[in-house]
Fold this protein.
Amino acid sequence: MNDSSKTFSEEPIFATPEFTVEERKKALKMGQKLMMYKIMIKEFGEIPGNIAYRAWQIRPLRAIIHKPGAFIWRQLRRAKKRQVLAM
């Protein structure tokens, strides 16, 4: 087992006749953006989710809001869980 198989990399490491490495990188980034958009909408609702997604797309802003954003997300998850258990 080599060291590269022990960690997850965001970079595709191979090409196929169907997709080049560059096409795979582009597809991976598109998938990550779509996934994050869907998560934000599901967790925060339509308007706050769109705002959160737009903020997430700005790298310097993402670095600043990562910790407080993760904290808020955890709190919302706990509140949702409590609501489900109370029903």
